[in-house]
Amino acid sequence: MNPTATPDGRTICHRLPSELKLGMAAGVILAGVTIPATSWPALGVLGCLVFAAHSFAATPLRYLLRRVLLFLPWIGSMAVSLPLSQGLERGWELMLTIFLRGMLAFTASLWLMQVLPFPQLLRTLRRLHVPLVLVAILAFMERYIFVVWEELDTLRTAWRARTFGPTGLWFRWHTLAQLLGQLLIRSLTRAERIHRAMLARGWTGAMPWLDMPETAPTTSVDRAG
């Protein structure tokens, strides 16, 4: 058990004000963007600060490593595309800059997700006078991203049921492109149905629950599984 945690599992990072937690994460991301890759000691200090913050927040190491490993192929392919596009003659410094900044921003965002639950984040953004339309987009994204994922899983199951025997790489890429196209069409259709249903129930664009006081603090959840 983390020595800085209270009996309810809330660490010192969880007990910080929501605005301060959001400002700290945004400050690390902004500092990582502005510091050039040649100033690697400063970037190393930022990385150590983020790691220390995860330690104080009692972030499970397994959870952190799994998320970083999932993110590595995306940021790695994006970074290495620059030298590849220039014949491996230039762009190496820019590749390193993108990789380091991306990893810093990602790990800082993971810390914010660990210590600031999404409903509290939305309320904090509302208190900071972020436009309501942006807050509503984030709320709906968090609500319906699982629906989109289930739709994709249904499409993949149907594809496996109709595919027999080994398939080549080109066939798999072609099928994946078709799945993504079908997912986009289904998502747009479902979004239109949901919007009509919300209008029928009196949706005016307001989200009153964002302005309601928080009844009780939300404890951290062990995401190691």
Question: Explain this structure to me?
Answer:
This protein is mainly α. The chain has helices at 18-34, 40-56, 61-85, 92-115, 118-127, 132-161, 169-200. It contains seven helices and no strands. α1 (18-34) packs antiparallel against α4, α5 (118-127) runs antiparallel to α6 and α6 (132-161) crosses α7. The longest helix is centred in the C-terminal third of the chain and has 32 residues, at 169-200. The model is unreliable at 216-225 (pLDDT under 50).
| Average of per-residue pLDDT values | 80
Q: Which consecutive residue ranges, at least 5 long each, have pLDDT under 50?
A: 216-225
Number of folding domains?
Answer: 2
Shape: globular
* Broad structural category: mainly alpha
Please report the number of helical segments.
Answer: 7
What is the structure about, briefly put?
With 225 residues, this protein is an all-alpha fold. It is built from seven helices and no strands.
Question: How do the strands and helices of this protein lay out in sequence?
Answer:
Blueprint lengths: L17 H17 L5 H17 L4 H25 L6 H24 L2 H10 L4 H30 L7 H32 L25
Helix pairs in contact: 1-4, 2-4, 3-4, 5-6, 6-7
